[in-house]
Amino acid sequence: MQKEILGYKCRKCGHVQYPYRTRCRKCGETVFEGNDIVFDTVPLPRDGKLLTYTDLYALPPEFEVVKLTLGIIELEGGQRVTGQLRVDKPQLGMKLHAEVEVVRKDAYSKNWGFVFYPA
After folding, report:
1. Cβ–Cβ under 8 Å, residues 75 and 81
2. What is this structure's pTM?
3. Residue 86 gets which letter from DSSP?
4. What sign does the dihedral 117-95-74-90 (CA atoms) show?
């Protein structure tokens, strides 16, 4: 079964945002106006382009790697997400494809997130 990262689609205007916020960034609809549910969950697109990236060293031991490259990717739907890059030589604007994988684990839990590969 393929795992998904979910975005939040406003029932009023259809705008998809990520991560979760209590107010729609586009129309301002909010969960505080008496509405029980104002967002539906939808899978985020997996393809996008690299906007910026950075290399991290000195990581906590649960990452089990010496160096980690993180990037901000603009997905095809316009959402911007942060994810790990598995790219030898990242270039701004390059096309990437995401998989949902374990990005960190400790003795009792696994954390899942986007890991981006060249498209």
Report:
1. yes
2. 0.86
3. -
4. positive
Q: Could you give the CA distance from residue 46 to residue 97 in angstroms, rounded to a whole number?
A: 6
Euclidean distance between CA atoms 68 and 66, whole angstroms: 7
Terminal Cα distance for the chain, rounded = 21
Least confident range of 16-20, 52-56, 103-107: 103-107
Fold of 47-118: OB fold (Dihydrolipoamide Acetyltransferase, E2P) (2.40.50)
- Angstrom distances, CA of residue 6 to CA of 40, 60, 61: 10, 27, 28
pLDDT of residue 57: 93
CB atoms inside a 10 Å sphere around CB 26: 13
pLDDT digits (tens, 9 = 90+) for 32-67: 656 567 889 999 999 999 999 999 998 887 777 889
Separation CA 17–CA 8 (nearest Å): 5
Instruction: Look at residue 74 and tell me whether its pLDDT is greater than 80.
Output: yes
